[in-house]
């Protein structure tokens, strides 16, 4: 493919050279013909000399030069000398004294070919009566060159020179074509290889050099990046789908088995009480399955950035206060100790209120559910986080901090890294309420907002969760 492109380029170069040479020849001949037809080239010294015969009249005894002829000689700074058949002068007008009054045949030829007086060129012609006459034109710019040639030989020589020029031009075109062909076709070969690699789903970037193809290479690399992004997105979607199917298969086995077992027991139930009991369990497991599917769907979307957030500028003070009130109004926590502290009246940030409410409720619920009833939980909202506790440069962009602190059992140090894993339940709790995905979902919700969740806990002293938002 590379040499095919180069050969086509060379052939095009040679054809262009031939066309240019032919066009130049035609233009040259046309210019010569055009110049020859112009008035300034019609009035040459030879033509002037011949035309002067129209102004000369008379015989050998008496020669007359018309006033128009004298005027024309004066305008050309020329003179006239008329000779008889024996070479004797029979008329002169403005003839220089250096010229003789009698010419032998040899003298005529010598005077015609050579200059006797500097800057004066002689031209010879005949009158209508057959008398010979000289016209001398004094002009240093006028030169005479006499040469003879054979038309066939001249045509042969011109043809040879044209062929030579054509050969040399083609040779030069070949050399230039090979040189520039390498320069021009090498990037094309790289482009062809780059397209071939793209077809094989290899999105390697091509080196970009300063050349006429730089913009093409830039566009190819941009296309490669775009295809690579689409390829990774497709792989991510396939991975998400496979993981979703795997999670569904794994997480639904237990409730499905319970439903199947109690459905079989219904066939052998002897009393209405047994039927009601088994039906209630089946209903509970069905609700659990629905809750599990919803949580799995949400966590998969959050992990793969596939959930569009309904962001809204929000004042965290009334927002968090309403959440605390909702918890206190919950029958499960109506008798529990929950304090609320706020340092400022206005703490603005941009959040998806529905998702953020779910995350904060999960952290507060866990503080009650996995501790004794005597635990005290405090929710604090401020514009800054306690730097003496969280000394991390990565948190410098955070402008809001929600702290959920409890005085409960605390979490063992070796379990802290697993708290946000799916289905993980610590050893310090016997509560199995929920799907086991709540804490992971809450953390993913905060991170989807560009925030961060930081966990600090000490066995026997309680646990603190910092929800930091930008």
Instruction: Work out the helix count.
Output: 12
The proportion of residues in beta strands is: 15-25%
What's the number of domains?
4
Strand count: 13
- Determine Rg (CA atoms, Å): 55 Å
Portion in helices:
40-55%
Domain Histidine kinase: 247-470
Keywords: ATP-binding, Coiled coil, Kinase, Membrane, Nucleotide-binding, Phosphoprotein, Transferase, Transmembrane, Transmembrane helix, Two-component regulatory system
Protein name: histidine kinase
Catalytic activity: ATP + protein L-histidine = ADP + protein N-phospho-L-histidine
Secondary-structure blueprint:
Layout: H1 2-36, H2 39-42, H3 45-51, E1 56-58, E2 63-65, H4 67-75, E3 78-83, E4 89-93, H5 105-113, E5 120-126, E6 132-138, H6 151-199, H7 214-251, H8 253-267, H9 272-303, E7 312-315, H10 316-328, E8 337-342, E9 348-351, H11 353-369, E10 376-382, E11 400-406, H12 438-448, E12 452-458, E13 462-469
Parallel strand pairs: 8-10
Antiparallel strand pairs: 1-2, 3-4, 3-6, 5-6, 7-9, 10-11, 11-13, 12-13
Organism: Candidatus Kurthia intestinigallinarum
Coiled coil: 213-243
InterPro entries: BphY/WalK/GraS-like, HATPase_C_sf, HATPase_dom, His_kinase_dom, HisK_dim/P_dom, HisK_dim/P_sf, Sig_transdc_His_kin-like_C
């Amino acid at each position: 493919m590379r040499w095919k492109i180069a050969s086509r380029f060379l052939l095009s170069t040679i054809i262009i050279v031939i066309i240019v040479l032919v066009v130049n020849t035609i233009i040259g001949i046309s210019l010569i013909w055009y110049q020859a037809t112009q008035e300034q080239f019609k009035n040459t010294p030879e033509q002037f000399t011949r035309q002067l015969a129209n102004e000369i009249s008379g015989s050998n005894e008496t020669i007359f030069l018309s006033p128009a002829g004298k005027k024309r000689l004066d305008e050309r700074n020329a003179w006239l000398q008329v000779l008889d058949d024996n070479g004797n002068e029979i008329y002169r007008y403005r003839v220089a004294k250096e010229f003789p009054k009698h010419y032998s045949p040899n003298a005529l030829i010598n005077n015609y070919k050579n200059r006797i007086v500097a800057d004066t060129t002689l031209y010879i012609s005949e009158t209508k009566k057959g008398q010979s006459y000289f016209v001398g034109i004094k002009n240093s710019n006028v030169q005479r060159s006499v040469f003879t040639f054979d038309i066939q030989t001249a045509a042969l020589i011109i043809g040879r020179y044209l062929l030579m020029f054509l050969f040399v031009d083609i040779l030069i075109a070949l050399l230039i074509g090979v040189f520039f062909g390498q320069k021009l076709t090498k990037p094309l070969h790289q482009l062809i290889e780059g397209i071939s690699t793209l077809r094989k789903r290899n999105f390697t970037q091509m080196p970009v050099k300063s050349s006429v193809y730089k913009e093409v290479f830039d566009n190819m690399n941009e296309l490669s990046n775009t295809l690579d992004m689409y390829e990774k997105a497709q792989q991510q979607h396939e991975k998400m789908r496979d993981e979703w199917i795997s999670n569904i298969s794994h997480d639904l086995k237990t409730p499905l088995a319970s439903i199947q077992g109690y459905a079989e027991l219904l066939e052998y139930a002897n009393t209405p009480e047994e039927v009601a009991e088994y039906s209630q369990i089946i209903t509970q497991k069905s609700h659990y399955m629905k809750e599990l599917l919803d949580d799995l769907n949400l966590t998969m979307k959050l992990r793969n950035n596939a959930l569009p957030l309904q962001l809204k500028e929000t004042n965290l003070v009334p927002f968090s206060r309403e959440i605390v009130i909702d918890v206190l109004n919950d029958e499960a926590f109506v008798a529990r100790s929950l304090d609320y502290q706020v340092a400022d009246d206005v703490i603005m940030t941009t959040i998806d209120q529905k998702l953020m409410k779910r995350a904060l409720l999960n952290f507060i619920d866990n503080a009650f559910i996995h501790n004794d009833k005597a635990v005290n939980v405090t929710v604090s909202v401020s514009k800054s986080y306690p730097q003496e506790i969280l000394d991390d440069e990565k948190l410098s962009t955070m402008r809001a901090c929600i702290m959920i602190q409890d005085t409960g059992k605390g979490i063992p140090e070796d379990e802290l890294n697993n708290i946000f894993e799916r289905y993980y339940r610590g050893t310090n709790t016997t509560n199995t309420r929920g799907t086991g995905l709540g804490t992971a979902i809450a953390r993913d919700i905060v991170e989807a907002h560009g925030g961060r969740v930081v966990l600090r806990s000490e066995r026997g002293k309680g646990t603190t969760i910092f929800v930091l938002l930008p």
